[in-house]
């Protein structure tokens, strides 16, 4: 029976069978780790694409504003290409090293330090990703509820408390999805969440043509304006809402053939009770920058690295891929990373060209400078919330796999353990989200450390150590060695710059 099964298995899987046979104990391990995959090519592509796509897309416009268009595009394509090369190294190492589990590759390469190094890197990266998704739920979901209830400000009700909402979403939606035994079933949610992100991108592109530059500077304690003053001329329309009930933070003269100047806008808005301050350097503000270097530029590469990390999910998805082969999985990775590259570039470019230097580190929040209640943007917020909520179980999967491999390597699958590990992970990330006031600098640190380990250092180190058939001076080994050195330099350099930025801002805040 076993001989028939092995004969029908993917030929590449037989690489993992030493001398063509196994003892009973090793046979059980083999069947557990190298079971025939059941997930289709398309579903695997959806899973990996959704693992790549996350909250990072909301910060790419800010990254472009702090690097310039040309430098950002160069960095974006570079990180994408390096990520593909890293996946290539990882897949080849998994074949030659005889394992489809990240930690086991680390153990075979460097013993227990490699095993725990891989575990720590995966856990840090994924805890950071999960925290970012839950932070979006915490801060965006109350705003969506408030907007749909047409509340001018947060009334303090429990359903507007982000801490309560993130717990309810975690227990009611994320935890049940996390209890699915096989990752392939989540492909349906992956497809839906990717559709949500495509909708987000579509609205960002559409709003570029609706919002003028420069933006007026509006000052009011509430930050929300309704223009009911009868003295306001009818041709001053709320831009660009199509609903009378929609509210927007500034007005423009929509008379055909009329171009509103700063002085006219200033006079009209003063008459309406709105404080307007024209930008003296408006021409410069609305010109795109192509190369920018400032204190925030140091965060750009870690943000991009964080945005492209999918490597902890590659091996679990590979293990469940139907008709599994290295070439087939590489094609899954190529399509996923190429698709996300296009979405990242469009979102960053149109978000930046909408707000230029005024863009904030979360793109959706920047639109509050212009709109208070706008239906398309509210739907985008809702779509992003759905997308990140459905992504959390996919990110949680490799964390649980790592914990199981480390703490319960010989135990058979058990539903109680399966549930408890997921519940503990979610409880920990919820605690971080509730009690940590800001996560931006943590993401910078994770992008420079854990993301660098997963993209550059670990795949290259595993490859150099485990792939024996290629000589050390072969082009493949030299390329992997250069890749490893670049990763170490990048990690040390980025962490140093980020630490210096923390010290600088800490000393500045003390003086104030």
UniProtKB/TrEMBL annotation:
Molecular functions (GO terms): L-amino acid transmembrane transporter activity
Keyword terms: Membrane, Transmembrane, Transmembrane helix
Classification via Pfam families: Aa_trans
Membrane-topology annotation of the record: Multi-pass membrane protein
InterPro entries: AA_transpt_TM
Spans traversing the lipid bilayer: 41-62, 69-91, 116-137, 158-179, 185-206, 332-357, 377-399, 419-439, 445-466, 478-504
Subcellular locations according to the entry: Membrane
Domain Amino acid transporter transmembrane residue range list: 38-209, 289-496
Principal subcellular localization: membrane
Highest taxon in the source lineage: Eukaryota
An annotated GO cellular component: plasma membrane
Name the UniProt record assigns to this protein: Solute carrier family 38 member 4
């Amino acid at each position: 029976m076993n001989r028939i099964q092995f004969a029908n298995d993917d030929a590449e899987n037989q690489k993992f069978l030493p001398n063509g046979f196994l003892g009973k104990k090793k046979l059980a391990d083999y069947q557990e780790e190298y079971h025939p995959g059941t997930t289709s090519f398309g579903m695997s592509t959806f899973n990996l694409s959704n693992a790549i796509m996350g909250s990072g897309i909301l910060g790419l416009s800010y990254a472009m504003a702090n690097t310039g268009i040309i430098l950002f595009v160069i960095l974006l394509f570079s990180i994408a290409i390096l990520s593909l090369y890293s996946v290539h190294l990882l897949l080849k190492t998994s074949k030659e090293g005889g394992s489809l589990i990240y930690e086991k590759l680390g153990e075979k390469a460097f013993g227990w330090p490699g095993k725990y190094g891989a575990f720590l890197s995966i856990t840090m990266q994924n805890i950071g990703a999960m925290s970012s998704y839950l932070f979006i739920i915490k801060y965006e979901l109350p705003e969506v509820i408030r907007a749909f209830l047409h509340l001018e400000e947060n009334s303090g009700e429990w359903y507007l408390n982000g801490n309560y909402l993130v717990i309810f979403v975690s227990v009611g939606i994320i935890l049940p999805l996390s209890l699915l035994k096989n990752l392939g079933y989540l492909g349906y949610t992956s497809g839906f969440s990717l559709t949500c992100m495509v909708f987000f991108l579509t609205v960002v592109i559409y709003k570029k043509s609706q919002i003028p530059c420069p933006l007026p500077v509006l000052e009011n304690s509430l930050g929300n304006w309704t223009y009911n003053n009868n003295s306001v001329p009818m041709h001053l329309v709320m831009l660009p809402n199509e609903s009378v009930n929609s509210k927007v933070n500034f007005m423009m003269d929509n008379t055909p053939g009329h171009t509103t100047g700063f002085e006219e806008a200033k006079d009209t808005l003063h008459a309406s009770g709105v404080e307007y301050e024209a930008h003296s350097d408006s021409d410069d503000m609305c010109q795109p920058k192509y190369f920018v270097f400032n204190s925030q530029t140091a965060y750009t590469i870690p943000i991009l690295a964080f945005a492209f990390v999918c490597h902890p999910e590659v091996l679990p998805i590979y293990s469940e891929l139907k008709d599994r082969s290295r070439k087939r999985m590489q094609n899954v990775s190529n399509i996923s990373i190429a698709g996300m590259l296009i979405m990242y570039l469009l979102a960053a470019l149109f978000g930046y060209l909408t707000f230029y230097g005024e863009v904030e580190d979360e793109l959706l929040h920047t639109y509050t400078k212009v709109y208070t209640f706008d239906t398309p943007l509210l739907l985008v917020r809702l779509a992003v919330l759905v997308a990140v909520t459905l992504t959390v179980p996919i990110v949680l999967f490799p964390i649980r796999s790592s914990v199981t491999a480390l703490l319960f390597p010989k135990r058979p699958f058990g539903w109680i353990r399966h549930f408890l590990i997921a519940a503990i992970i979610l409880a920990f990330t919820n605690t971080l989200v509730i009690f940590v006031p800001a996560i931006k600098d943590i993401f910078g640190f994770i992008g420079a450390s854990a993301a660098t380990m997963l993209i550059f250092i670990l795949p290259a180190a595993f490859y150099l150590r485990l792939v024996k058939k290629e000589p050390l001076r072969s082009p493949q080994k030299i390329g992997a060695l250069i890749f490893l050195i670049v990763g170490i330099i990048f990690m040390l350099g980025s962490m140093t710059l980020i630490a210096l930025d923390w010290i600088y801002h800490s000393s500045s805040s003390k003086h104030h």
